[in-house]
């Protein structure tokens, strides 16, 4: 929905802020208004305090929600009878139902509760759930634990995205989201190997291999959660790790870039207005289509490789290399996306790369060639996770809207997880052709949405340049295409 539908109170709030300069000019001239060394020092200080701990926590989050694929191959499928019907798909997708439902409420209260309090608490709690999963005796008990895991993780990823976006200028965000996601991608890619190593403890303490996987990852999660109490930082206006001068500059640079460094008040009317903005749903759909592929291969790549003829050990070991390639591709793509200030072109290119990989996996017979296709598929879909988040955050203003948009987008990712769990059916094992076809369709949907959004954004920017339209309540704001 256009900015003309924004509430009058929100416009008044924006208008009373400091004078905003054009982003392109400010981005190039930053450092001329302050000591360049000071500017670099502040940015690096923010990077070091903000990104590493969030990346580490998101890494363990990804591992905890997807390590059931390793546990399945390590004996869980036999012990809990997960090969009966669609039990494995149910266990995989049931996590996302509460994950989607509780994302928006969690994001709406994070400013009042505080980032450190909310994020560290839920990490410790979901670590406890992971530990409890090691002692499940039936698949129904495991399903209950997956539901609890979804409830707790619902407030984490969208909260991290919201927090990171408030600290950086628009054309710094793609690289920061990529850094945040890269560490988790690399380590979670190797989680298959780590999980396999843990499974070798089978028989010790009376536990099977899959139980050791859940137990050890649960303990690691709790330990990281306790550490995060001392390391997670809050929003810029509440940050305590910066000196008063550094804090003022951190807020000023975001204010000059897009004019929303100062938090606006949250209200039901604003939430309703934000949720009527069609582009937020378009971003959520792009994220849904990206995560359908990323979750599908997190859950099913080892299974597909094993079904193609690889041993359990080799299936797990071979699951890691595609993520290393994806990390390199994501870093390069994010760098040039920020440098050229283009989003749709890079997202569309990655969707096309993913589509090519999926076609190779679906319609070629040699297992080695299909494995090569997984490299292209994982690189394309994984690169688009941080890219779509940056695209969304570049094209909205205000803390309240950013909070709603982050929850909707990540919620779309949760629906992608459900789709991935359900379209890769046990009856289609081991090639999962219908699932691969559905994932190909998702990449086509991304490209179509990018075309429509780009046309809309260009038209709005042109009207704004002519002075006949105001974007997001800010006369100087322009959409990033």
From TrEMBL:
Subcellular location, principal: membrane
SUPFAM superfamilies per the UniProt record, alphabetical: MFS general substrate transporter (SSF103473)
Residue stretches making up the Major facilitator superfamily (MFS) profile domain: 50-462
Residue stretches spanning the membrane: 50-68, 88-110, 122-140, 146-167, 179-198, 210-233, 280-304, 316-332, 344-363, 369-391, 403-424, 436-453
Mode of membrane association: Multi-pass membrane protein
Keyword terms of this UniProt record: Membrane, Transmembrane, Transmembrane helix, Transport
GO CC terms in record: membrane
Alphabetized GO MF terms: transmembrane transporter activity
Domain of life of the source: Eukaryota
Pfam families, sorted: MFS_1
Location in or out of the cell: Membrane
Annotated protein name in UniProt: Major facilitator superfamily (MFS) profile domain-containing protein
Organism the protein comes from: Rhodotorula taiwanensis
């Amino acid at each position: 929905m256009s900015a003309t539908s924004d509430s009058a109170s929100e416009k008044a709030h924006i208008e009373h802020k400091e004078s905003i300069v054009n982003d392109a000019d400010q981005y190039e001239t930053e450092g001329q208004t302050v000591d360049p060394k000071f500017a670099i020092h502040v940015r690096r200080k923010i990077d070091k305090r903000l990104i590493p701990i969030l990346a580490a926590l998101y890494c363990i989050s990804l591992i905890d929600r997807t390590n059931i694929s390793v546990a399945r191959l390590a004996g869980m499928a036999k012990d809990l009878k997960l090969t009966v019907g669609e039990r494995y798909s149910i266990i995989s997708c049931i996590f996302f139902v509460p994950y989607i439902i509780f994302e928006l409420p969690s994001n709406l209260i994070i400013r009042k509760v505080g980032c450190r309090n909310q994020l560290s608490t839920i990490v410790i709690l979901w670590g406890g759930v992971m530990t409890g999963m090691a002692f499940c005796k039936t698949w129904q008990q495991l399903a209950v634990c997956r539901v609890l895991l979804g409830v707790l993780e619902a407030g984490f990823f969208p909260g991290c995205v919201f927090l990171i976006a408030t600290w950086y200028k628009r054309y710094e965000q793609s690289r920061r989201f990529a850094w945040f996601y890269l560490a988790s991608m690399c380590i979670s890619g190797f989680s298959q190997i780590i999980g396999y190593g843990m499974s070798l403890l089978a028989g010790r303490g009376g536990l099977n291999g899959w139980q050791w996987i859940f137990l050890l990852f649960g303990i690691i999660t709790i330990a990281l959660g306790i550490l995060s109490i001392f390391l997670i930082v809050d929003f810029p206006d509440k940050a305590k790790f910066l000196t008063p001068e550094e804090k003022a500059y951190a807020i000023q640079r975001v204010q000059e870039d897009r004019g929303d460094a100062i938090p606006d008040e949250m209200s039901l009317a604003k939430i309703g207005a934000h949720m009527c903005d069609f582009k937020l749903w378009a971003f959520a759909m792009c994220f849904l289509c990206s995560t359908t592929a990323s979750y599908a291969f997190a859950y099913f790549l080892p299974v597909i490789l094993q079904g193609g003829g690889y041993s359990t050990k080799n299936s797990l070991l071979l699951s890691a290399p595609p993520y290393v390639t994806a990390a390199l591709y994501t870093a390069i793509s994010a760098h040039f996306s920020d440098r050229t200030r283009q989003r749709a072109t890079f997202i569309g290119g990655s969707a096309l790369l993913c589509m090519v990989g999926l076609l190779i996996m679906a319609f070629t017979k040699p297992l080695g060639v299909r494995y090569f296709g997984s490299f292209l598929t994982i690189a394309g879909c994984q690169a688009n996770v941080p890219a779509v988040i940056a695209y969304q955050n570049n094209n909205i203003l205000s803390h309240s809207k950013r909070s709603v948009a982050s929850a909707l987008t990540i919620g779309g990712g949760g629906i992608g997880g459900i789709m991935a769990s359900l379209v890769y059916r046990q009856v289609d094992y081991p090639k999962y052709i219908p699932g691969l076809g559905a994932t190909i369709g998702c990449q086509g949907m991304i490209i179509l949405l990018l075309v429509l959004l780009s046309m809309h954004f260009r038209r709005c920017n042109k009207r704004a340049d002519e002075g006949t339209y105001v974007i997001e309540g800010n006369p100087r704001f322009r959409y990033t295409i």
